[in-house]
Amino acid sequence: MPADKPLKVIYNKLLSHFGRQHWWPARTPFEVIVGAILTQNTNWSNVEKAINNLKTAVNPADRDKSIGLLTPEKLYRCKLSDLAVLIKPAGYFNIKAGRLKNFMDWFFENYDGDLERLFNKNISSLREELLSVRGIGPETADSIVLYAAEKPSFVVDAYTYRIMFRHRLIPEEITYDELKAFFEESLQSDVKLFNEYHALLVRLGKTYCKKTKPQCTICPLGDLPHD
DNA sequence: TGCCAGGCCGGGT
DNA sequence: ACCCGGCATGGC
Asked: Domains of chain A (ranges plus CATH)?
C-alpha cells in the first residue's frame, strides 16, 4: 500500500485538529461573489460590516424602497458613490466599489444578471470569463467558482503559499497557477474537499502562520519540516 | 502603536 | 515578463 500523498496527510491533520469550517460564510451564491471581491487583502470581520451595510441599506434609486442591496438587480442599480460609502468598512472602498460595478455591468451585459446562466458553463471557461473582469484576479475567480458556482477549482491565497513554503513543500518562487495545479493534481477533484481544504488552510494561517511570526512550534503540522 | 488582513491593477523597467 | 507603489479600514 502506497502512503497517502503529503497534501492528503496535511488535510487529515487539519480536519481532525480544527474540524469542519462550514465555508463560505454567506447566505447566497451572490453574497459569496460580493464577499469575494470585498475580502481582497482584507480581514473578514471588516467585510462583514460592509456586507451588513449592504443588507440593511435602501437604494435611493429604487422606487419600492425595499431593504437590502444583496441581489443582482439591486446592486446593479446602485450608484457607484452610494456603494462606496456603504462598503467603507471593508477598506479600499473606492477601488472595490469600482470592482463590484465592473462585475455587475459585465454580469448584466452578458448574462442578464442571471447566475444560473453564468454558472451553466464548464469550469475552465467560467474561470477565464471571470478573470476577464477588471478587479477579479485568480483568487477571487477561484473563490467564486468553488464557493458560489460549486465547481472544483482549488483556491490559493497568501496563507496557502506561506504555509506550504514554511513547511518546505514548495519553492519560494512558485506561481499561483503552479501552486493551484500542485493541489489539484494531488487531490481528488471534489468540491467538498476543495472547499474544506482552503477553509482549513485559512484557519491554520490565522491561528498559527501569520506573516510576522516565522517560528511556529505549536502548529498542528509540527511534525513536518518547518522553518 | 505599528503592523496586518482570505488581492489586484497599472505604470515603469 | 517581472517589479513595485497604491489602495484604506478596523483589530490586536
From this structure: 4-22+154-218 (1.10.1670.10), 29-148 (1.10.340.30)
